Amino acid sequence: MPATSPTDGNPGDTGDPLAGLHDALLAWLPTQRWFPAKGRVVAGLRTVSHAVVSAPGETPTVEHAVIGVSFADAADTGGSTEERYQLVLGVQASPPADVEYAVIGRRGEDVVYDGLADGRISRLFLSLITENATRGPLRFVAEPDTEAPIVGPGRPLIGEQSNSSVIYGERAIMKLFRRATAGLNPDLELHRALGRQGSHEVAPLLGAIEGEIDGEPMTVAMLQTYASNSADGWSMAAASVRDLLAEADLRADEVGGDFAGEAHRIGKTVAAVHLELAAALGTHPLDARGASEIEEWMLERLDRAAAAVPGVAEQREAIAAVLRGVSAAEPSTLQRIHGDLHLGQELRTPTGWLVIDFEGEPSKSLADRVRPDSPMRDVAAMLRSFDYAAFHQLSEWEQSADDPDPQLERRAQEWADRNRSAFCDGYAEATGTDPRESPELLRAYELDKAVYEVLYETRNRPSWVSIPLRSMRRLLTPAGRGER
Ligand SMILES: Nc1ncnc2c1ncn2[C@@H]1O[C@H](COP(=O)(O)OP(=O)(O)O)[C@@H](O)[C@H]1O
Ligand SMILES: O=P(O)(O)O[C@H]1O[C@H](CO)[C@@H](O[C@H]2O[C@H](CO)[C@@H](O)[C@H](O)[C@H]2O)[C@H](O)[C@H]1O
């Protein structure tokens, strides 16, 4: 299979098969949910690698490419000026009508489109995985000792995603990682480790696609069992909050959609994942050096957020003092963790909860995402998510009303407290360690997450930035700290 090397992306450079498409790609990228840099100033685009994956004569032609997007504003991203993304492209003169929505542009007579929209391409990838095939630079690998799913076309998952997935007949789901990074993706790595540990808390892994970048291995995609009949924790929690806010006279425990039982079960599930990850990949004591390293990452992120958001800059010193609480913490341990846990990363199946998406925070480098950290980071992230579920509806209402309704605010806080507390109870029951017994550590991690969220919302959902800003104020107010 022909594979082309990097070029400078000059449209006149005939060595780059994507050169004529650069403008079309620059217009298309910001329309994609997975493209995280919507608010940033794009300076240019180049083709990092390109290869044809389909066999000669196969229709459509399938290409795999990595593009590098450079930005004019490197300041708030830790100085990186280029981010790399993976594309799977379908190329055909007259593609079927159902891929029209995924068209990127034209190359000569051909239409070039997002390949995952085409069931023929997702079907090809699934069959290549079951055959352990190699095509060009891509290696398709079935997970040993797993049952091959029935091969058929996949349907693209529509929804909020940092990557792009296709679902195969409610049997399997394949995720194409959009960020192109050298190394083993932690989502694949941790699913593999947990699967081999016999975990019931993750969907079994079925296979992967591996490629290469800068002469090093890179995870292209991951295939896992699809949990049919599942609902995600965010939708369930949001429905519970809606019920409570609609019932002015009932307490959270009296409303039909009370979520506390589920929050308790989620606490136990997260605890089980932590215990399994520790057993599979080990633990280290959190010593003074480790604590000061963690504080440094937190402070560095705080400075980026302060540079971008005035509400954070005003509170910088007070926030920094709380983040330094990591050093004051009781002896504790570091281990591999989930790294970006929230209610949307939990799936309720008929038999219990599954945890998905172990990739870590999308904006962090791979080295930072695989660094052992305190399990408290995941606990704090879940507590933040209960706050989000409780207050997202109010924050939307408040945009159209003059004043916040104190009665509704109290009820939302009641929901958050009840579910945060049920989660901690479940976690403590399964691990024997109650996270609330390390208040400084928990508060530092919660505040660090809120700082991340302020930056995330400013870039992606500005109308939601009031949710983490409100929590930030609560975490800095002595009276608010005790609320769990
Ligand atoms: N094993 C699975 N079974 C059923 N649905 C899944 C599974 N894994 C992911 N999903 C669905 O796909 C969505 C996106 O998955 P996720 O791993 O969070 O992707 P991303 O990294 O792109 O955010 C989830 O919100 C969930 O709805
Ligand atoms: O799931 P992703 O890996 O894409 O995570 C990113 O997006 C999340 C939003 O979808 C974001 O989570 C934040 O919003 C959630 C509600 O939508 C809330 O439950 C979380 O607590 C909050 O952090 C996540 O931070 C981001 O990395």
UniProtKB/TrEMBL annotation:
It catalyses: D-maltose + ATP = alpha-maltose 1-phosphate + ADP + H(+). Residues 28-118 form the Maltokinase N-terminal cap domain. Pathway: Glycan biosynthesis; glycogen biosynthesis. It comes from the Bacteria. GO terms for biological process: glycogen biosynthetic process. The keyword ATP-binding applies. SUPFAM superfamilies: Protein kinase-like (PK-like). One of its GO terms (molecular function) is ATP binding. Keywords: ATP-binding, Carbohydrate metabolism, Glycogen biosynthesis, Glycogen metabolism, Kinase, Nucleotide-binding, Transferase. Monomer. Belongs to the aminoglycoside phosphotransferase family. This is Maltokinase.
